[in-house]
């Protein structure tokens, strides 16, 4: 191998390393841009495109709880509650006190008629600690709503049990 060939090979390797490092450094920014784009689609009620953008955002940052919650919400709007539950559960794995994911998972179970699972998730949502992934407004809304839904389920069960 000549010195010129060695030099070219070295330059290719250096270029590949620079590209790879740049891509890794830009991942959070790309994830954020995709998250924002998905939000624009949601504002325009273009749910399938929003879902695709959230999926891409998660591909760049798999630990983004917000993107997972919104993706699950998109799936639910599209009638794919099975896929929505998978994403809500992943969000809960990442943040066990995410009142949004806990509440929404509980509501999907309630809609499916699985009251045991619904009560489990809604109970967790009602007593969830304030998570940094959830705004104060959402935290108050979802914890209060979870308590209200638990009361509604309890009344319905009591009414069903009465002769």
Summarize it.
By secondary structure, the chain is mainly alpha-helical.
Report the CATH topology name of the largest domain: Serine Threonine Protein Phosphatase 5, Tetratricopeptide repeat
Largest sheet, described in full? none
Low-confidence stretches: none
Oligomer, anyone?
Answer: single chain
Gap from first CA to last CA? 92 Å
- The whole-number mean of residue pLDDT values reads 89
Q: Kindly report the name of the CATH homologous superfamily of the largest domain.
A: Tetratricopeptide repeat domain
- Provide the number of structural domains: 2
In one word, what is the shape? elongated
Number of helical segments?
A: 7
> Structural class per helix/strand content?
mainly alpha
Q: Which percent band covers the strand fraction?
A: under 5%
* CATH top level label of the largest domain: Mainly Alpha
Total beta strands: 0
Task: Describe the model.
This protein is mainly α. The chain folds into two domains: 62 residues, no CATH class; 87 residues, Serine Threonine Protein Phosphatase 5, Tetratricopeptide repeat. 82% of the residues lie in helices and 0% in strands. It has seven helices and no strands. Helix 3 runs antiparallel to helix 4. The longest helix has 41 residues. It is elongated, with a radius of gyration of 22 Å. It starts with a helix and ends with a helix. The mean pLDDT is 89.
């Amino acid at each position: 191998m000549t010195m010129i060939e060695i030099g070219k090979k070295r330059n290719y390797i250096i270029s590949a390393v620079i590209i790879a490092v740049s891509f890794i450094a830009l991942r959070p920014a790309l994830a954020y841009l995709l998250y924002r784009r998905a939000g624009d689609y949601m504002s325009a009620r273009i749910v399938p495109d929003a879902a695709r953008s959230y999926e891409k955002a998660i591909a760049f940052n798999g630990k983004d709880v917000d993107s997972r919650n919104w993706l699950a919400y998109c799936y639910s709007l599209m009638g794919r509650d099975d896929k929505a539950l998978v994403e809500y559960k992943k969000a809960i794995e990442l943040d066990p006190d995410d009142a949004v994911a806990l509440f929404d998972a509980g509501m999907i179970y309630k809609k499916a008629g699985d009251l045991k699972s619904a009560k489990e998730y809604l109970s967790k949502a009602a007593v969830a600690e304030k998570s940094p992934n959830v705004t104060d407004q959402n935290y108050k809304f979802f914890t209060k709503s979870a308590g209200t839904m638990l009361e509604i389920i309890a009344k319905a069960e009591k009414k069903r049990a009465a002769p």
